[in-house]
Write a structure and sequence with these properties.
By secondary structure, this protein is α+β, with helices and mostly antiparallel strands. It is built from 8 helices and 11 strands.
Length: 404
């Protein structure tokens, strides 16, 4: 099962790389389209500049032989520009003409000349200062020693096209995110149904033999079984009943009761103390103060027992397990530290995934159910606080304190 999550991790990395490549390719072609449109607009502005040059040259010339239709044609070229904002200045930087700018105050002069309103004049001067810092300028040589400069902004179409790829990218990312989380939610819901169904079916299957064992326990004294043996057998039967009860609570809201966390953990540690190898040292350090919490005692004991069992399995027959507790004004914590094999950092979160296990036997559901019990039922957190391969692991549980 561990390999499944390893492959899934690599799959996520591969998907991320592929997504970045697709986005980069998309932006590359979009950028090429924008460059092409920008070149077309510059060609239009060059044509506009050439027409302006010809009109200026014709105006300065004393030769009246030029046909009037030429001027009309050139003026038609200039007037055909209805989308690209243009400023025409002399060589001293004085604005001679403007076209296609959205002025703060409605145009108070022709669309070619300078407006008279001070706000409009100030607006155009600021535009000119900004355009001087851009590459969108064409020098027009009117005559020897006389030049004019044509400044222009990108058209509205080009501006929209420049931001369109990023808008489309955001839409794509949002769509992918929605689909991803929808699939993830559906998958989690299916997993929950499987685990809940498995737990309840296990509780149901255990119910019949437990009932039979309880009935046999009532007959054993009449058969001459000694009292000590009956006491131990009764403990085991009650334990089976408790385990069945724990499984039946998975998937439904358990009854939460006020309790001292020290007592709950102490009971679980005490039970495990007599059921692990004597070569493994199990110590318990409760908090000095009472830790009042809202808890389902059977389920919380199950979590502690599961962590201790995992710690035992992580050791080669000997070592130590330390269970310690503490708390503050808002949060109580439980730490289970062992001297076992440890967990690699990349698997600190994966150990809580359904089916993840490094053991040759087992379903890998213990920590998954523990996470569900702590986070969904008790509104707390469970995580790997620290782990060093070959040295040991510390699990930490945090639960909210109940005051008042």
């Amino acid at each position: 099962m561990a390999n499944i999550y390893e492959l899934r991790r690599y799959g996520k990395i591969a998907f991320l790389i592929a997504s970045v490549a697709v986005v980069a390719l998309f932006l590359y072609f979009s950028d090429g389209l924008i460059r092409d449109l920008s070149a077309v607009e510059r060609e239009r502005m060059q044509l506009w500049a050439d027409a302006t040059k010809e009109i200026a040259a014709s105006t300065m010339s004393d030769d009246d032989s030029a046909p009037a239709t030429d001027i009309d044609f050139l003026l038609g070229i200039i007037q055909s520009n209805t989308t690209i904002p243009v400023l025409l200045t002399d060589q001293d930087g004085n604005i001679l003409q403007q076209r296609n700018f959205s002025l703060p105050v409605e145009a108070d002069s022709s669309s070619f000349g300078m407006p008279s309103n001070p706000r409009n004049v100030s607006f155009l001067e600021k535009k000119l200062e900004a355009l001087k810092r851009s590459p969108n300028v064409i020098e027009i040589n009117i005559a020897d020693g006389i030049s004019q400069y044509l400044y222009y902004e990108d058209s509205t179409l080009l501006k929209r096209l420049s931001i369109y790829p990023y808008i489309q990218l955001l839409v794509m990312l949002a769509f992918i995110a929605v689909v991803y989380f929808a699939v993830l939610s559906t998958k989690k819901a299916e997993q929950n149904k499987v685990w809940v169904g498995l737990s309840k079916e296990t509780a149901h299957q255990l119910g019949t033999p437990i009932s039979s064992l309880m009935a046999w326990m009532e007959l054993l004294p009449d058969l001459g079984v000694d009292a000590d043996t009956l006491t131990e057998m009764n403990k085991d039967v009650n334990r089976l009943s408790t385990i069945a009860s724990r499984f039946s609570k998975i998937g439904s809201a358990p009854a939460m009761m006020s309790a001292d966390l020290n007592e709950i953990v102490g009971e679980a540690v005490g039970y495990m103390h007599t059921r692990i190898s004597q070569r493994i040292s199990l110590t318990y350090a409760p908090a000095r103060d009472i830790l009042p919490v809202e808890a389902c005692t059977p389920l919380l004991e199950w979590v502690i027992e599961n962590l201790i069992k995992n710690a035992v399995d992580a050791m080669d027959g000997s070592g130590s397990i330390d269970v310690s507790m503490g708390g503050g004004a808002a949060m109580a914590f439980i730490e289970v530290a062992d001297t076992g094999k440890g967990i690699s950092r990349k698997n600190h979160k994966a150990v809580f995934n359904p089916g993840f296990t490094t053991k040759s036997r087992g379903w890998g559901l213990g920590l998954t159910l523990a996470k569900r019990i702590i986070e969904q039922y008790h509104q707390g957190k469970i995580f790997v606080k620290q782990s060093v391969p070959g040295q040991g692991t510390t699990f930490r549980i945090e639960l909210p304190i109940k005051r008042g």
